[in-house]
Amino acid sequence: MIPILWGLAACLYGTSIFFFLLQIWYDQKFLEKLGLTLAILGALSQSLAILMEWIALKHFPVLNIHEALGTFAVLMIGFFLVFQWKWRLRGFGFFSSALAFLSTLISYAYPSAVLNAPTPELSGALLAVHVTIILASFGLFGLAFSTSISYLIQDYLLHKKHSIKLSKKLPSLLLLDSITNHLVTIGFILLTIGMALGSIWANRWWGSWWNWNPKEKLALFTWIIYAIYIHARTLTGEKGKKLAVLIIAGFALVIFTFLASNLLPGSVHP
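Request: output the structure for the sequence above.
Response:
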């Protein structure tokens, strides 16, 4: 049943991408509603699958890549719905559903991981809270990546006179910049809290607050990138393409940290 729900979620996310893309082009509200409905149904299907895994495995399913990708997708769609309700951004749903769709597909590369029972150090509530908060920050950074891509596209269109009509179909640069700032600020706070909880967990089980393994180093680099953005945006007032590119680079590092860091030599982080 769980694989069926997972596959259903992927299909719903994929179909919502199609309707969100049509909504950008034709500017019809019913297309946006269809896209939103399908994205919500996809998140509900995936949430039910996560709940069933939780019951079956007796731990909150965030302890391996398969589980974490599903939780990441649901959290990101949840945040997307909140921000979309507040700002009604055209194009936001396309990128959000695309990221959720890709996350769900990639999780299929790790199907057997669902059956693994957690070791004692992985079964505590502290680790589950730590990982969930980190995943929530990643979800917000994923949305900031979406708005940054939209910013660069809009900036390009505005500099091409023959593309003015198309640029009107996307949010203004000012609005995209403002929303990106909100997303990154909240995500950075959550990332900081999540890393602090991770240090507490590491000290409890490994006897050290920080071990400089590959995932911890990459997490620190990610934190620094977003800290640079907040410093530039808040203290110096800088805006524009440079910060959009920085956010895109930051999310690329998030993806690498998420999916590939455990493959690096010396990695002992779960």
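Residues 2-263 form one domain.
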